[in-house]
Design a protein that fits this description.
- The protein has strands spanning 2-7, 13-18, 25-30, 35-37, 47-52, 58-63, 70-75, 80-83, 91-96, 102-107, 114-119, 126-127, 135-140, 146-153, 156-163, 168-171, 179-184, 190-195, 202-207, 214-215.
- With 229 residues, the chain is mainly beta.
- The strands form five sheets. A four-stranded antiparallel sheet has the order 1-2-3-4, with no helix packed on it. A four-stranded antiparallel sheet has the order 5-6-7-8, with no helix packed on it. It has a four-stranded antiparallel sheet with strand order 9-10-11-12, with no helix packed on it.
- A hairpin with a 6-residue loop joins strand 11 and strand 12 (126-127).
- The radius of gyration is 17 Å and the shape is globular.
- The two termini are 25 Å apart.
Length: 229
């Protein structure tokens, strides 16, 4: 299994979760085909949802090295690891702001998974979403004014976009299928996402207002998309 790909800002590397060694490891693949471990990890540790910082020098991810899922930041050059959250709840799915000053993430510290924002040092944590019992997989827009995410309603997930200035959310998808994993195009006007509306999960593209939906993949099971910059 190879999951959760994340493009580096220069498009020359992809960080992802791999089970190729028999246990889950956070690895980085270069455009030349070189594969390396992101950092030495402990046995039984699970690392998920890598996201590159805008300058390409760091990778944020959710790691269980201390027995509970917390948000960490890895400095790629030397492997220095910084823990940002310390909470008995599960903290997952980090997403850098385009200024690199903030990180959005998901936590169930309030009783259900909701989206939070913190400063890049792990301070000033504040809750972003209150509507819905399960909000997940935030993705910060290139301009930094919006965050796309998925929310579970009526037993399935749909996509929303939160305007950070007005603190209002707009619903982009609606129906009996699941729509998840939103990622922004570099132009900030399109989104790519995964949906099982055809019966199996495939990748779709749409305009950021929810219109112009176009299916990209056909067959198999496709999910965890990420748009190169």
């Amino acid at each position: 299994l190879n999951l959760n790909p994340s493009w580096s800002p220069d498009g020359k590397e992809i960080a992802f979760l791999s089970y190729r060694s028999g246990r889950p490891e956070l690895v980085i693949l270069s455009s030349s085909g070189e594969l390396r471990k992101a950092y030495p990890q402990q046995k039984g540790e699970l690392n998920l949802g890598p996201d590159w910082s805008p300058d390409g020098k760091k990778v944020a991810f959710a790691g269980s090295r201390d027995g509970n899922s917390e948000i960490f930041v890895l400095r790629v050059a030397d492997g220095q690891l910084t823990r940002l959250t310390t909470n008995p709840a599960l903290d997952t799915s980090p997403s850098w702001s385009p200024t690199a000053r903030e990180i959005a993430f998901v936590s169930d510290r309030s009783g259900s998974p909701q989206i939070y924002i913190m400063d890049a040092e792990g301070t000033n944590v504040r809750r972003l979403t209150y509507e819905g019992s399960w909000n997940d997989l935030p993705a910060w827009s290139p301009k930094g004014d919006k965050i796309a995410y998925c929310s579970r309603l009526e037993g399935h997930f749909d996509l929303f976009v939160r305007d950070l200035a007005t603190q209002k959310s707009s619903r982009l998808t609606q129906g009996p299928s699941n729509n998840e994993d939103p990622r922004w195009a570099p132009d900030g006007h399109h989104l790519v996402f995964a949906s099982d509306r055809s019966g199996n999960y495939d990748i779709y593209e749409m305009i950021s207002d929810g219109s112009g939906v176009r299916r990209i993949t056909q067959g198999g099971r496709s999910f965890n998309p990420d748009w190169s910059r």
